[in-house]
Design goal:
Maltoporin, Chain A, mainly beta, six-stranded mixed sheet, single chain, 24-stranded antiparallel sheet, 48 strands, 2 domains, Phage tail protein beta-alpha-beta fold, disordered N terminus
């Protein structure tokens, strides 16, 4: 296995020169066996030695940093083989009482003041990697921070949390959020354009986004990244994706109750690492990714990381396609041995041409290449984000962290879309929509948090205490409304003879759409403050308790002017200003028992405080949604911790559910309560050497509107876009034999059951399953690793709707596509 322990995160490493040479202890096995170890780094050679011999090898990562090996080929005893590999390295090999082999330097020099030693790494045919190591091949990570905001083992966390590691993103050649999140149980695509997802039956998009002030809420490194309206994000600088199932507002503030989607970004490393990946694929896909990191000073107090991506692509639909540019430089500064600051800047510009929502009941009746939009239609999403994170370590038990983040986004959009299902003749209504009419729109977020984490003991109880406060201010302006007047002959179209505006008399692509002076204007100033405390308690007999409380004070200051569609608010004098303030205390508690290292049993209860629910017909801000969830499950960690599984039962209730009329910009109504219940299974890790798997399955038999005094016909009906069954299976095998070393094959299936559009069960789309394959070959050329890879997605070319909207339209899933890439790493 081509591991690279030397690339472990440098913040814990110590530079110690190697001196002297020694042979391994004679106690090591003397059975002769065949060794085929190529030249390269000593760390790779030692890991390959461990795979072949089965001998445990323990060594600090810094111990072998920068050391090379000429390799080994032939039949040797393990003792002789290890002696040849260590020749000239200045290292001793010593056998411990347990039979493991420990590497040591022949002579030690004093460590510099304030330095910390790297814990030993145990190897038995498989390396143990730091989670930030760019060469980490693992499909499972033992720890996650999203559920607790502390680095907690998943087996000690009494909630369901799923991690999608970097190697999975590489093997699947993930480019979009949807591709990454399909690996998580209970998550399905929302609008199909990588901007919305449904988790445990509920949208990740706050309802206030329909009136301009909300949008999907994601998290980056634990702080909110509210993208607003139509924005999506690039994954070029994402190391892994962590998803906390169920409510998470106790730690993250106002959020949707289905789950917390947290993107953990790549960080600067002390060890130089450079990577370039070039992708070529179907429908003109072209993408370049660059990743570079390393120290800027000899003492490694300053380190950098730069991620860059450029992508251009066409689409199966006429006029479709897009282009995106992403850049993210970072700087880490170790101010002292106890204080570290990290600064990050992100820039993203994503352009999409002519999105093509189609009436759901035209699935399979018209070609996927037929576009019901117009060639002038487009959207452009831009943002700039700056963050500064500082951590001060008082001692080994107490740490203070401060985070600041500011993001500035702008979304411009002009589109025509189907407004409902088609009749028997293929006729359907449509609407035109424009955002950022006057070029003055903005969506700005300012986030500030301060957290103190401490570990202490009270009698037989061991505590990990988290106390924190955060402040988030959203300052936004949106101008939106119809692109055109609802003129006769254009408010409808036909599936078999579509009408395009530029084809109408006097209209061309160049002179249409005209600028309009009447539009809706929304302005939001939404500050909210939170204070939270959490205690994780470890008791005797492997019992773990978790308890927490959060106080929220949320304010909404709204300005609205319905200049383009005043008929939707006939009883409101516009413009108008509406203010609202809400307070709430939300609790969370959990218990976990780990009777044996391989098994954990857990249960939890969590409440949620959500975002505002938009404006009603009288121009009033609706009461915020709240939620509560019970959860219980079983976790296992098998095969020496390499395979993690979580089986969870959940019961999630959402209160003050809101419903918005069509089209966007219309008022919303509170319609009562909805509930989802079901089982989820998540599996990730390595079954046998080289055989990895990540799988997800959700069975949600109950997902219904429970109360709705306004739309009584919805009560007892299934929720929108909530399949009863959904899942994903992905597995790869990397050949271990020397002659095939570096060759990897993979296959996967994604399946989603039938779903309803809207809340009355009158419109539904059939389920689907897609088959995906991959193959890659990796080579070592000196210190450089080269990987050639090809992926085939939707190999059987299944036609299906991936995204669904409540008013009867959907977005086609990708057809059969091939993606080739070459990655060079050094």
């Amino acid at each position: 296995m081509l591991a690279a322990i030397a690339a472990l995160c440098g913040s814990l490493l110590v530079a110690v020169p190697a001196v002297g040479t020694a042979a391994p202890d004679s106690g090591i096995s003397q059975q002769t066996m065949n060794f085929d170890i190529g030249a390269g780094s000593l760390s790779d050679a030692l890991l390959r030695f461990s795979e072949i011999s089965g001998q445990r090898v323990l060594f600090g990562a810094e111990l072998v940093r920068g050391l090379g090996s000429d390799g080994l080929n032939g039949r040797y005893t393990p003792s002789a083989a290890l002696q040849r590999l260590l020749s000239g390295s200045g290292l001793n090999a010593r056998q411990t009482d347990s039979g493991s082999i420990t590497l040591e330097k022949a002579a030690e020099k004093p460590l510099p003041s304030g330095a910390a030693t790297m814990p030993a790494v145990t190897v038995l045919g498989q390396a143990t990697y730091d989670s930030t190591d760019p060469y980490n091949p693992a499909y499972s990570l033992p720890n996650a921070s999203t559920a607790t905001k502390t680095d907690t083992p998943i087996m000690h966390t009494p909630m369901s949390v799923k991690v999608v590691p970097q190697q999975v993103l590489k093997d699947q050649q993930v480019v979009t959020l949807d591709q990454a999140l399909r690996n998580v149980s209970g998550v399905v695509s929302g609008d199909g354009n990588d901007r919305e997802f449904y988790v445990r039956g509920f949208s990740s998009t706050s309802s206030s986004g329909s009136n301009g002030g909300g949008g999907s809420t994601y998290y980056r490194d634990g702080f909110p990244f509210i993208n607003g309206w139509h924005h999506t994000v690039d994954l070029a600088n994402i190391d892994r994706v962590e998803v906390l199932k169920g409510p998470g507002s106790i730690l993250f503030g106002r959020s949707e109750p289905g789950g917390i989607i947290n993107f953990v970004t790549k960080q600067p490393l002390d060890t130089p690492y450079y990577s370039v990946r070039q992708q070529f694929g179907s429908y003109g896909h072209f993408r370049t990714d660059i990743d570079a990191t390393g120290p800027l000073t000899a003492n490694k107090d300053l380190a950098y990381r730069v991620n860059f991506a450029y992508q251009a692509n066409d689409a199966i639909a006429q006029w479709g396609g897009g282009e995106r540019i992403f850049a993210a430089p970072m700087l880490r500064w170790r101010i002292s041995d106890k204080t570290t600051s990290t600064f990050k800047l992100e820039y993203s510009d994503i352009k999409t041409n002519a999105d093509n929502p189609v009436p759901y009941n035209l699935l399979g009746k018209v070609p996927r290449s037929r576009n019901f939009n117009d060639p002038w239609a487009y959207s452009e999403d831009q943002y700039v984000m700056f963050s500064a994170n500082t951590e001060h370590v008082f001692n080994e038990n107490w740490t203070l962290r401060h985070r600041f983040n500011a993001s500035f986004a702008e979304v411009t959009s002009r589109n025509v879309a189907a407004a409902g299902s088609a009749d028997a003749s293929g006729n359907f209504g449509r609407w035109g929509f424009e955002q950022n009419f006057d070029g003055g729109d903005y969506y700005n977020n300012y986030f500030n948090s301060l957290e103190l984490t401490g570990k202490f003991e009270t009698g037989f109880a061991k505590h990990t205490l988290l106390i924190g406060s955060d402040y988030l201010k959203t300052d936004a302006r949106a101008t939106m409304g119809p692109v055109f007047a609802w003129m006769p002959g254009f408010e409808s179209s036909n599936a078999y003879q579509p009408i395009h505006r530029y084809q109408m008399p006097g209209m061309t692509v160049s002179n249409f759409p005209p600028q309009r002076t009447a539009f809706n204007t929304f302005e939001y100033d939404n500050p909210w403050f939170g204070f939270y405390a959490q205690d994780q308690v470890e008791l005797p007999y492997h019992v773990h308790l978790l308890g927490g409380l959060r106080y929220d004070n949320a304010n909404t200051d709204t300005y609205a002017d319905y200049g383009a569609i005043p008929q939707f608010f006939p009883s409101v004098q516009t413009p108008f200003v509406e203010k609202q303030s809400n307070d709430r205390v939300s609790p969370r508690g959990g218990v976990l028992w780990q009777p044996i290292p391989e098994l954990s049993l857990f249960g939890s209860y969590t409440e949620n405080f959500g975002a505002p629910n938009g404006l009603n017909a009288q121009g009033r801000v609706l009461a915020p949604q709240t939620a509560a969830q019970w959860e219980a499950g079983v976790k296992t960690e098998l095969f020496d911790g390499r395979l993690i599984t979580t089986l969870t039962y959940f019961d999630l209730k959402k209160y003050n559910l809101s419903f918005q009329d069509f089209p966007p910009g219309s008022p919303s109504q509170l319609i009562g309560k909805a509930e989802s219940r079901g089982l989820e299974l998540d599996i990730s890790g390595e079954i046998l050497p080289g055989w990895k798997i990540i799988a997800a399955y959700a069975y949600m038999p109950f997902a219904q509107t429970v109360e709705d005094p306004i739309h009584t016909q919805y009560v007892g009906k299934r929720l929108h876009n909530a399949p009863e069954n959904s899942g994903n299976l992905w597995t790869t095998y990397e050949f271990q034999q020397a002659i095939l070393q570096g060759l990897k094959l993979g296959a996967g299936v994604q399946a989603v059951g039938q779903r309803f559009l809207g809340y009355d069960e009158t419109q539904k789309t059939p389920g689907y399953a897609t088959l995906n394959l991959m193959a890659s070959q990796a080579w070592k050329v000196g210190q450089t690793r080269v990987t050639a890879q090809i992926n085939a997605d939707n190999l059987l070319d299944k036609t299906y709707l991936q995204g669904l909207n409540t008013y009867g339209v959907g977005t086609y899933g990708a057809p059969r596509t091939f993606m080739g890439s070459v990655r060079i790493e050094y």
